[in-house]
Amino acid sequence: MSKKALVFGSRGQLGIEITRSLRRAGWAVVSFDRHTADVRQSDVVHSFVESESPELVVNCAAYNTVDRAEKEPAAAYYANALAVRNLATACRKGNARLVHFSTDYVFDGAKDQPYTEADWPHPRNAYGVSKLSGEHYAFAYLDSALVIRTCGVYGPEGIHTAHGNFVETMLRNAHAERQLRVVTDTIASPTFAPALAEKAVALAGDKRFGLYHAGGGQPVSWYDFAREIFAVCQLPADLVPTTRAEYPTQAERPLFSALSNERLEREGYGVMPSVREALVAYFDRREDALRQGNRGQ
Ligand SMILES: NC(=O)c1ccc[n+]([C@@H]2O[C@H](COP(=O)([O-])OP(=O)(O)OC[C@H]3O[C@@H](n4cnc5c(N)ncnc54)[C@H](OP(=O)(O)O)[C@@H]3O)[C@@H](O)[C@H]2O)c1
User: Fold this and answer.
1) According to the model, what pLDDT value does residue 290 have?
2) Is 28 helix (H, G, I), strand (E, B) or coil?
3) pTM here?
């Protein structure tokens, strides 16, 4: 009999890929989107974990609107922190393992080298605070929670999901022949969702726990990432470099938040694809996603 996993937040770009990767790895998956299970509701989460009795619970649900979180920090906290408490307490009661995803925005960006798991978090915005609190809840209630921090997630299913991703935003604006002003002074490690899902499922399958970083293969500015996007898909775009000073946002963001995958690699989980490799794979799969519609469930 196959092992059972529950996936919460299953209609997000990562939730869809996690569901696929788990199934490919032989797990029986029961997936819940926001409408079937709102992770903020403790009784709902507890009752599903109790009735399904899974070995693994994967939380891909998140409140991800970073700027809006500045205006409504409580909403971000409920979804990104207290919801993790609900999942962690349900896992503790049901003897299930929890896999949870966190963010590069737990860091302040003062470094200029990729952040490791040993670096001290110091979030600069309400979203980062809520995600760091979620990590604390996972580790507070469980001895063997697996928390994976990632960065700038983009998966081909972002063409269908409510919040999309950076690649789709770039393409939409280019098709509309709008000028694209993209920052050169903010460095991250944009992460290809299918590759992240593969690593997460491998870690979970090996019963790893603790904190892991899994970001894209190399640090890159958002401007250079945008250039690579248009180079790979061969779409002309009016791309103009700008800076953070010229493009202020509601939430303060770290100037440098690339993640080091050193631990992941050292423990034998391989390297994440380079920016170019990941974008080539993105556009291949995007064609399939366009043809097939949203079949993530
Ligand atoms: N996206 C990024 O750039 C990024 C960067 C760093 C870390 N991460 C982390 O990576 C993980 C996956 O993110 P993603 O890119 O897959 O985000 P996503 O595409 O926005 O998916 C998140 C999913 O969570 C759902 N959700 C929100 N609130 C919920 C609730 N209360 N109960 C149940 N479901 C809820 C959303 O539903 P609705 O669509 O209905 O809101 C959405 O389907 C998250 O932990 C996120 O914090 C993401």
Assistant:
1) 87
2) strand
3) 0.97
